[in-house]
Design goal:
Layout (H helix, E strand, L loop, with lengths): L21 H13 L8 H8 L3 H10 L5 H12 L3 H7 L8 H19 L3 H13 L2 E5 L5 H12 L5 E4 L6 H5 L6 E7 L5 H13 L2 E6 L12 E4 L12 H17 L1 H17 L7
Parallel strand pairs: 1-2, 1-3, 3-4, 4-5
Length: 286
């Protein structure tokens, strides 16, 4: 018999699991392992993923104490929106702020919390190891994620990591693709969805032999191609402002972990950089 865990599907409403049919129990088991994906799925998609009929999924919500899928999502969203922001607000009551700033601060902490809730240590350590061992790190960063690519480029250069930001789109991307080999790693930002260029980078990696890392805000990445590491960073709901705070937090932790892995070499480089700044402080003031 399945046992309820604090915060999981079976603890959201008092349920006698023995009363669930084999089909409804199958849905419950699938949800328990894929709960973070539910926010983005329809009943038809849940039925397909769990291997049951749409009608069974529609009936399931009332069996576990909810009106429908929308009602379940509402409760799930409430549970994911942890309250550290409310505690933080008590410490800044004496500061000048607007309602918008309060809302943004609260939302930022929630996004960080959701990101931590979905943190996959194995994938994260895999990503760090891949970047550390790579001859070159290629980064595909469409839209606002270009800022994260520039941050990685600036910081990792200090550690001796060669970074190439892919700045071509469409068929012009192929001009860069021919230079990526098995000694390289490709980091793909796939916020909202993975674009065609990202899919091509994943697909070509299978034959060229290079490794791939994907950073996304989608609990379920909709691609048929394999990847070596998947890192999640929450950016909010589809219909609201998409914050980069959690994504920046994730990227900065990658940088810190890489720095720690090669601490002696990195300290030598930083000492050398400090010496150069001192030597040329009058010629190249900061």
């Amino acid at each position: 018999m399945m046992k309820a865990k604090k915060g999981d599907l079976m603890s959201r409403s008092p349920i006698n699991i023995s009363l669930l049919s084999p089909t409804h129990l199958k849905i419950a088991q699938w949800l328990q392992h894929n709960e973070s994906a539910v926010m983005l799925l329809t009943e038809k998609e849940i039925a397909k993923e769990s291997g049951v009929s749409i009608a069974s999924v529609s009936r399931f919500w009332m069996m576990i104490g909810f009106k429908n899928l929308k009602d379940y999502k509402r409760k799930l969203r409430e549970d994911l929106e942890i309250t550290p922001a409310k505690k933080m607000m008590n410490t800044i009551d004496d500061l000048e702020h607007t309602k918008l700033q309060i809302h943004h601060l609260n939302k930022s902490v929630q996004l960080l919390q959701v990101t931590l809730n979905h943190f996959n240590k194995a994938y994260f350590e895999r990503a760090v190891a891949l970047i550390q061992e790579a001859k070159k790190l290629y980064i595909y960063a469409p839209g606002p994620s270009i800022g994260l690519a520039e941050l990685l480029n600036y910081r990792l250069a200090r550690f001796g990591v060669t970074v190439v930001i892919l700045r071509k789109w469409g068929s012009e991307l192929l001009e860069d693709l021919v230079h990526i080999d098995k000694n390289c790693v490709v980091l793909i930002f796939a916020f909202s969805r993975i674009l065609k260029e990202g899919d091509v980078l994943l697909d070509y990696g299978a034959s060229a032999g290079y490794r791939t890392i994907v950073i996304t805000d989608q609990p379920v990445l909709r691609t048929h191609h394999a990847f070596d590491a998947l890192l999640f960073a929450s950016r909010g709901e589809k219909d609201e402002f998409h914050s980069m705070i959690a994504a920046t937090y994730l990227v900065e932790n990658l940088i810190l972990s890489l720095s720690e892995k090669q601490q002696d070499k990195n300290m030598q480089r930083l000492d050398q950089l400090s010496a150069l700044r001192k030597k040329y402080k009058d010629d190249l003031p900061r």
